[in-house]
């Protein structure tokens, strides 16, 4: 069986990409609270308890159970012992599909510095080299040019548009769909 836990990877600006841990709840809550205004336009509406350490600890346990079952790889970006972002491989499907979905965000203070591009590249390398997957999918809001640039820089191709794809910021919104083929075998 392929190795499912990636090694910690050094990224620009003193950031490291590492596996989520059971004790990350308080640091995740702090990161989400600090970035609430930065993330709100790009994410589902979150209840108040989402920003609390107890809820983030529960969510981390759920994500780690999904990882143990081979369905996801939950990652965090960390700098100076603070979580400054996420990069997740989710909905891993084996068999004829060999596919995963990629989701990510970075702290507003680190946006535009190449950190997320390096994190996405590392996550894709793990999907290819360690998980043996064939394809990674990602979706962005149509007007999220920064995220689309990250995907373009890391080898993703736009493959279409999904009308009313996800409920983001309180309403169903269209998304641009992207894929990266990891190998031609």
Topology:
Elements (H helix, E strand, L loop, with lengths): L8 E2 L5 E4 L5 H10 L1 H4 L13 H16 L4 E7 L2 E12 L5 E8 L8 H15 L5 E7 L3 H9 L3 E12 L2 E11 L4
Parallel strand pairs: 5-6
Antiparallel strand pairs: 1-2, 2-3, 3-4, 4-5, 6-8, 7-8
Helix pairs in contact: 1-3
Features:
Aminopeptidase, 8 strands, alpha+beta, 185 residues, single chain, eight-stranded mixed sheet
Describe the structure.
With 185 residues, this protein is of the alpha+beta class. The chain has a domain of 127 residues: 3-Layer(aba) Sandwich (Aminopeptidase). 29% of the residues lie in helices and 34% in strands. It has 5 helices and 8 strands. Strands 1-2-3-4-5-6-8-7 form an 8-stranded mixed beta sheet, with helices on both faces. A hairpin with a 5-residue loop joins strand 1 and strand 2. The chain is globular, with a radius of gyration of 16 Å.
């Amino acid at each position: 069986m392929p190795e499912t836990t990636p090694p910690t990877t050094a990224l620009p600006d003193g950031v490291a990409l590492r596996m989520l841990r059971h004790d990350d709840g308080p640091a995740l809550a702090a990161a989400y609270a600090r970035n609430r205004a930065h993330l709100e336009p790009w994410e589902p509406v979150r209840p108040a308890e989402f920003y609390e350490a107890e809820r983030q600890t529960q969510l981390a346990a759920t994500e780690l159970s999904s990882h143990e079952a081979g369905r996801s790889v939950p990652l965090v970006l960390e700098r100076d012992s603070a979580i400054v972002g996420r990069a997740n491989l989710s909905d891993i499907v084996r068999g004829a599909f060999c596919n995963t979905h990629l989701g990510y965000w970075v702290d507003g203070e680190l946006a535009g510095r190449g950190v997320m591009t390096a994190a996405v590249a590392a996550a894709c390398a793990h999907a290819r080299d360690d998980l043996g997957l064939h394809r990674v999918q990602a979706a962005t809001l149509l007007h999220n040019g920064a995220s689309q640039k990250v995907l373009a820089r890391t080898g993703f191709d736009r493959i279409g548009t999904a009308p009313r794809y996800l409920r983001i910021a309180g309403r169903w919104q269209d998304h641009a769909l992207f894929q990266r083929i990891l190998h031609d075998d």
